[in-house]
Protein backbone atom coordinates (compact mmCIF):
# COMPACT_ATOMS: atom_id res chain seq x y z
CA UNK A 1 0.00 0.00 0.00
CA UNK A 2 1.36 3.42 -0.97
CA UNK A 3 1.39 5.87 1.93
CA UNK A 4 0.93 9.40 0.62
CA UNK A 5 2.55 12.02 2.83
CA UNK A 6 1.85 15.65 1.93
CA UNK A 7 3.85 18.12 4.02
CA UNK A 8 1.68 20.86 5.56
CA UNK A 9 2.86 23.88 7.55
CA UNK A 10 0.94 26.41 9.65
CA UNK A 11 2.18 29.25 11.85
CA UNK A 12 0.68 30.81 14.98
CA UNK A 13 1.89 34.16 16.37
CA UNK A 14 3.35 33.69 19.85
CA UNK A 15 4.94 36.50 21.88
CA UNK A 16 7.92 37.76 19.84
CA UNK A 17 8.13 34.59 17.80
CA UNK A 18 5.79 32.16 16.09
CA UNK A 19 4.87 28.56 16.64
CA UNK A 20 5.15 26.30 13.62
CA UNK A 21 2.85 23.32 13.23
CA UNK A 22 4.10 21.02 10.50
CA UNK A 23 4.18 17.51 9.17
CA UNK A 24 4.51 14.79 8.29
CA UNK A 25 8.16 15.66 8.98
CA UNK A 26 11.20 13.71 7.81
CA UNK A 27 13.78 12.02 10.06
CA UNK A 28 16.45 14.45 8.81
CA UNK A 29 14.33 17.45 9.79
CA UNK A 30 13.68 15.99 13.23
CA UNK A 31 17.43 15.54 13.74
CA UNK A 32 17.89 19.32 13.45
CA UNK A 33 15.47 19.93 16.35
CA UNK A 34 15.55 19.36 20.09
CA UNK A 35 12.86 18.29 22.52
CA UNK A 36 11.37 20.57 25.17
CA UNK A 37 12.42 19.18 28.59
CA UNK A 38 8.76 18.91 29.68
CA UNK A 39 7.99 16.32 26.99
CA UNK A 40 8.58 13.37 29.30
CA UNK A 41 5.17 11.68 29.57
CA UNK A 42 6.27 8.48 27.82
CA UNK A 43 10.06 8.42 28.23
CA UNK A 44 12.96 10.81 28.71
CA UNK A 45 12.89 13.65 26.13
CA UNK A 46 16.14 12.47 24.48
CA UNK A 47 14.80 8.92 24.14
CA UNK A 48 11.46 10.15 22.87
CA UNK A 49 13.24 12.30 20.28
CA UNK A 50 14.98 9.17 18.98
CA UNK A 51 11.63 7.35 18.89
CA UNK A 52 10.07 10.15 16.82
CA UNK A 53 12.95 9.98 14.32
CA UNK A 54 12.44 6.22 14.03
CA UNK A 55 8.67 6.54 13.48
CA UNK A 56 9.15 9.28 10.87
CA UNK A 57 11.32 6.87 8.89
CA UNK A 58 8.66 4.14 8.70
CA UNK A 59 6.78 3.86 5.38
CA UNK A 60 3.46 4.47 7.16
CA UNK A 61 4.89 6.58 10.01
CA UNK A 62 3.83 10.19 10.44
CA UNK A 63 4.99 12.79 12.94
CA UNK A 64 3.12 16.08 13.19
CA UNK A 65 4.86 18.52 15.51
CA UNK A 66 4.61 21.96 17.01
CA UNK A 67 7.85 23.86 17.53
CA UNK A 68 9.11 27.22 18.69
CA UNK A 69 12.26 27.94 16.67
CA UNK A 70 14.15 24.63 16.85
CA UNK A 71 12.49 23.31 20.03
CA UNK A 72 9.73 20.71 19.69
CA UNK A 73 6.94 21.69 22.11
CA UNK A 74 4.37 19.12 21.02
CA UNK A 75 3.91 16.15 18.72
CA UNK A 76 1.44 13.56 17.46
CA UNK A 77 2.48 10.13 16.17
CA UNK A 78 0.82 7.83 13.62
CA UNK A 79 2.07 4.31 12.88
CA UNK A 80 1.01 0.70 12.55
CA UNK A 81 -0.09 -0.89 15.84
CA UNK A 82 2.49 -2.67 17.96
CA UNK A 83 2.95 -6.33 17.06
CA UNK A 84 2.13 -7.35 20.63
CA UNK A 85 -1.31 -5.72 20.55
CA UNK A 86 -4.48 -7.29 19.20
CA UNK A 87 -4.87 -4.45 16.69
CA UNK A 88 -1.96 -5.79 14.65
CA UNK A 89 -3.42 -9.30 14.34
CA UNK A 90 -5.00 -8.75 10.93
CA UNK A 91 -1.84 -7.12 9.50
CA UNK A 92 -4.16 -4.58 7.92
CA UNK A 93 -2.28 -2.15 5.63
CA UNK A 94 -5.01 0.47 6.07
CA UNK A 95 -5.27 0.36 9.89
CA UNK A 96 -3.20 3.15 11.49
CA UNK A 97 -2.85 3.99 15.18
CA UNK A 98 -2.83 7.55 16.45
CA UNK A 99 -0.29 6.67 19.09
CA UNK A 100 0.88 9.56 21.24
CA UNK A 101 -0.22 13.15 21.72
CA UNK A 102 1.94 15.30 23.97
CA UNK A 103 2.27 19.05 24.53
CA UNK A 104 4.71 20.77 26.90
CA UNK A 105 2.94 22.10 29.99
CA UNK A 106 3.76 25.76 29.30
CA UNK A 107 1.89 25.65 25.96
CA UNK A 108 -1.21 23.65 26.89
CA UNK A 109 -3.60 26.60 26.73
CA UNK A 110 -3.01 27.05 22.99
CA UNK A 111 -5.01 24.05 21.72
CA UNK A 112 -1.91 22.71 20.02
CA UNK A 113 -3.14 19.12 20.35
CA UNK A 114 -6.22 19.73 18.22
CA UNK A 115 -4.24 21.89 15.78
CA UNK A 116 -1.67 19.13 15.22
CA UNK A 117 -4.27 16.40 14.83
CA UNK A 118 -6.30 18.53 12.42
CA UNK A 119 -3.14 19.15 10.36
CA UNK A 120 -2.60 15.40 10.06
CA UNK A 121 -6.01 14.96 8.42
CA UNK A 122 -5.78 17.87 5.97
CA UNK A 123 -5.69 17.36 2.22
CA UNK A 124 -7.60 14.04 2.43
CA UNK A 125 -4.38 12.30 3.53
CA UNK A 126 -6.09 9.88 5.90
CA UNK A 127 -9.18 8.95 3.87
CA UNK A 128 -7.69 5.56 2.90
CA UNK A 129 -7.19 4.57 6.54
CA UNK A 130 -9.07 3.40 9.57
CA UNK A 131 -7.39 5.53 12.23
CA UNK A 132 -7.83 4.44 15.84
CA UNK A 133 -6.56 5.49 19.22
CA UNK A 134 -6.66 3.61 22.52
CA UNK A 135 -7.08 5.87 25.52
CA UNK A 136 -5.83 4.43 28.84
CA UNK A 137 -6.23 6.49 31.99
CA UNK A 138 -2.79 5.46 33.27
CA UNK A 139 -1.18 7.37 30.38
CA UNK A 140 -2.95 10.61 31.26
CA UNK A 141 -1.19 13.49 33.01
CA UNK A 142 -3.72 13.85 35.80
CA UNK A 143 -1.20 15.41 38.17
CA UNK A 144 -0.14 18.37 36.00
CA UNK A 145 -3.58 18.95 34.54
CA UNK A 146 -5.42 18.86 37.87
CA UNK A 147 -8.28 17.05 36.12
CA UNK A 148 -10.19 14.05 37.40
CA UNK A 149 -10.09 10.82 35.40
CA UNK A 150 -13.53 11.58 33.95
CA UNK A 151 -12.76 15.19 33.07
CA UNK A 152 -9.55 14.08 31.35
CA UNK A 153 -11.53 11.44 29.45
CA UNK A 154 -13.97 14.14 28.28
CA UNK A 155 -11.06 16.32 27.19
CA UNK A 156 -9.51 13.48 25.16
CA UNK A 157 -12.85 12.65 23.53
CA UNK A 158 -13.35 16.30 22.60
CA UNK A 159 -9.82 16.39 21.15
CA UNK A 160 -10.39 13.32 18.98
CA UNK A 161 -13.80 14.55 17.83
CA UNK A 162 -12.10 17.52 16.13
CA UNK A 163 -11.27 15.07 13.31
CA UNK A 164 -14.54 13.12 13.61
CA UNK A 165 -13.17 10.22 15.62
CA UNK A 166 -15.96 8.51 17.55
CA UNK A 167 -16.22 6.04 20.42
CA UNK A 168 -16.30 2.37 19.37
CA UNK A 169 -17.13 -0.63 21.52
CA UNK A 170 -14.63 -3.46 21.97
CA UNK A 171 -14.01 -6.46 24.20
CA UNK A 172 -10.27 -5.75 24.40
CA UNK A 173 -9.26 -6.68 28.00
CA UNK A 174 -7.03 -3.64 28.58
CA UNK A 175 -9.70 -1.19 27.46
CA UNK A 176 -12.36 -3.06 29.44
CA UNK A 177 -10.19 -3.04 32.58
CA UNK A 178 -11.36 0.48 33.54
CA UNK A 179 -14.53 2.35 32.49
CA UNK A 180 -12.58 5.52 31.64
CA UNK A 181 -10.51 3.72 29.01
CA UNK A 182 -11.88 3.87 25.49
CA UNK A 183 -11.34 3.13 21.81
CA UNK A 184 -11.92 5.95 19.34
CA UNK A 185 -11.99 5.45 15.59
CA UNK A 186 -12.26 7.35 12.32
CA UNK A 187 -13.03 5.39 9.15
CA UNK A 188 -11.83 7.21 6.05
CA UNK A 189 -14.13 7.77 3.11
CA UNK A 190 -12.02 5.55 0.82
CA UNK A 191 -11.81 2.56 3.19
CA UNK A 192 -13.37 -0.58 1.62
CA UNK A 193 -16.16 -2.40 3.44
CA UNK A 194 -13.92 -5.48 3.70
CA UNK A 195 -11.51 -3.53 5.90
CA UNK A 196 -14.35 -2.32 8.12
CA UNK A 197 -15.52 -5.90 8.56
CA UNK A 198 -12.02 -7.10 9.36
CA UNK A 199 -11.63 -4.34 11.94
CA UNK A 200 -14.93 -5.43 13.53
CA UNK A 201 -13.58 -8.97 13.89
CA UNK A 202 -10.49 -7.58 15.62
CA UNK A 203 -12.57 -5.39 17.96
CA UNK A 204 -14.71 -8.31 19.11
CA UNK A 205 -13.07 -11.65 19.76
CA UNK A 206 -15.17 -12.97 22.65
CA UNK A 207 -18.03 -14.24 20.52
CA UNK A 208 -20.13 -15.56 23.37
CA UNK A 209 -20.94 -12.51 25.46
CA UNK A 210 -24.00 -12.34 27.69
UniProtKB/TrEMBL annotation:
Start and end residues of each N-acetyltransferase domain: 19-170
Entry-linked InterPro entries: AcuA, Acyl_CoA_acyltransferase, GNAT_dom
Protein name in the entry: Acetoin utilization protein AcuA
Species of provenance: Paenibacillus aceti
Pfam families reported in the protein's UniProt record: Acetyltransf_1
PROSITE patterns: GNAT
CDD domains noted in UniProt: NAT_SF
Top-level division of the source organism's lineage: Bacteria
Amino acid sequence: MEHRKTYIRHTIPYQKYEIVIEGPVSPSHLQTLQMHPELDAFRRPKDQHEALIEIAGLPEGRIILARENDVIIGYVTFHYPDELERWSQGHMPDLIELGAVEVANAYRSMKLGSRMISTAFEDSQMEKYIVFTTEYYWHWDLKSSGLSVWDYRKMMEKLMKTVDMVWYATDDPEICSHPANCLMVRIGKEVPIESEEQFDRIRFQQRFMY
